[in-house]
Amino acid sequence: MKMVVFDIDGTLINAQNGMMQPDDKTKQVLRSFQQQGNKIIIASARGEIPEGLRDVDFDGYVLSDGHYIIYNNEILVDDMMSEAEVQKQLDVYQKYHGRAMFYGHDDEWCDCLDDELVIKHRVMFQGNNQRPVGVNEKYQASDVHAMSCCVLFDTVDELWGAYHELKEDMTLVVYDTGLIRMDVYHKGFHKGTGCQYLFQKLGIDRQDTYAFGDGVNDYEMFKLVGHGIAMSNAVESLKEIAEYVTDDVEHQGIVKAFQKYFDMKE
Fold first, then answer.
1. I need a labelling partner for 198 at 20 to 30 A (CA). Which of 1, 62, 191, 236 fits?
2. Average pLDDT per run of 10 along the chain, which is 266 residues long?
3. Residues 95, 162: one domain?
4. What is the distance between the alpha carbons of residues 234 and 201, in angstroms, rounded to a whole number?
5. What are phi and psi of 42, to 5 degrees?
6. Domain identity same for 149 and 227
7. Of residues 32, 3, 6, the one with CA closest to residue 265
């Protein structure tokens, strides 16, 4: 039995370019691979699955960069932030002008939905700038029941200032180019160790594990699985450690890699 793990954004979909679901050939290849007795897993910084992926029956999900893990519809890991952790973040973000978006299972908390950076974030991950409804815009730390926080900054200096004040207490994933931001979690797993936890729990040998990704938060995942496969649209640092670089997300990169590794036919 083999296990293949997929990042979402830039790997299965590309929201910025309007590609909100994998093409039919990719879906067909994934289902055929499952029918051979193998496992397909999502691993993402997202806390929930976008609509465009819900017609693919993935076996498991490593969400919130490893802090919310589900397999066969059973919740295995569910790491929530404490009130004290939320309060410390709010204090640090105020100091460094961070725009925070907290995400729970069913709720979101953000007091700056109309901020320019927050709008850019929506375009990047939703494919549009539509203002969300139902978000808690007035809150205090005791109101927040979150798994994750994405916080946006104007400058890299502000980002790293906040990072150094939080690094001992939280798990942090930094993006210091493009849209400057940091994903923040309760101290614990990251995406890579979350995937490792799952394949070890399932008794799958490391050499039978594969990961597809494109971003900096896929680096540890590539180090911990047997085979790391980067999309051609991936950041250069990930391509450098990848075993193989396939085509990009919009040109059936997953299909082409499956044909190479698993002899999947047209």
1. 236
2. 95 86 93 95 90 92 93 94 96 98 94 96 88 95 95 98 96 92 90 94 97 93 96 95 95 94 78
3. yes
4. 29
5. -90, 135
6. no
7. 32
